[in-house]
């Protein structure tokens, strides 16, 4: 069996509990531990993978599909000894707030796995039973296997909480006291990524100790042992949930991977390889040129605004990218990648740094957070889309462009189709650049088009 770690609401400690569980499990077991993250998050999965040594897989039915979520979970949990998924927001909080679509509860139902519910016990005692009872009965289709009591203040506080929960016959699977010794620093888009944290090994060591001492392992381990999920997931018809690639050109794609560019879905990287495209990592911060003999460029999201000075200082790399794009190299850039291709980036301190200068606009950081699922309708052909294509993606950024394209790439709608947003994105040369992050899992035709474009254009490039 597997579990999903859920919170009664955001901010109750889902990530801390999940990391403590993974770290303790890794310390006590040599077996494979597969983790998952509900939703479009990039940073939490980095911490999962740092601990487990395996790529964390995102489970998002909006960016992909319900069938894809089931197939992905089955594929990656089937050869692991333990499988753990970290939820998103509160247990029943979905994409719109009006229903639980894309919520932790939605994923729990799809996978038929039990929920471990984290309760914030600060400033409450007997009322904790009413909260737990409400979550347990709100949707009878959800099995809550037990609770983890977080922010418990004292032995007396724990005694009161335990007495209150006794009548519910709901196992207490863990108790975390109020503590400030373990703090993972964050900034404007969430936790600071693992590659930037020199103190991470010691933090993980403390998390492992916390996990070893705060969980009831006799109750937890039987829940954690991965097994073949319910028949609804493993039935023969579901073998078609992950579309098989239809083209297999042997080409090389340069992928920007360093402290500035680290937001990539593990499934997307796998799909490139499954389709015969070799991803060649390179660093726009430290490498002076693109890798040799590449036929396409891939810039994911990340924090180019934080490393704008370093990116600007590497003029050779910027010139190398500019020459390749001007020569017609197919390029896919999302969010942080789009910012790097702009004329300049202006950071939070209002300092401005030159970038690649392919897109005639400035990416300027601000206080406003743009966040949410988007249905993007293609207004232009690009290496990724054809006019009229409708794809699902996700926006998450605090920058805005000072100039927009006079021929925008996308018209945007929210998850609710009646919500519309300003058209955005750029198509220039053979560049597809947008703030919208895309998961290729259930939209494989996009990746096929990009790889085919890279393969067909390579013979025309003269760098």
What does this molecule look like?
Its cofactor is Mg(2+). Belongs to the CobB/CbiA family. The protein has 463 residues and is an alpha/beta fold. The chain has 2 domains: 3-240, 3-Layer(aba) Sandwich (Rossmann fold), CATH 3.40.50; 251-460, 3-Layer(aba) Sandwich (Rossmann fold), CATH 3.40.50. Helices cover 31% and strands 28% of the residues. It has 14 helices and 23 strands. It has helices at 14-28, 43-52, 66-77, 104-111, 127-138, 155-165, 200-214, 217-224, 231-234, 266-274, 308-313, 315-326, 336-341, 444-457, and strands at 3-7, 33-38, 57-59, 82-90, 115-120, 144-152, 172-177, 186-187, 190-191, 251-256, 261-263, 277-282, 296-299, 301-302, 331-334, 342-346, 352-354, 359-378, 390-401, 410-413, 420-424, 426-428, 431-434. The chain has a 7-stranded parallel sheet with strand order 3-2-4-1-5-6-7, sandwiched between helices. A 6-stranded mixed sheet has the order 12-10-13-15-23-22. The longest helix has 15 residues, at 14-28. The radius of gyration is 23 Å and the shape is elongated. The termini are far apart. The model is unreliable at 228-241 (pLDDT under 50).
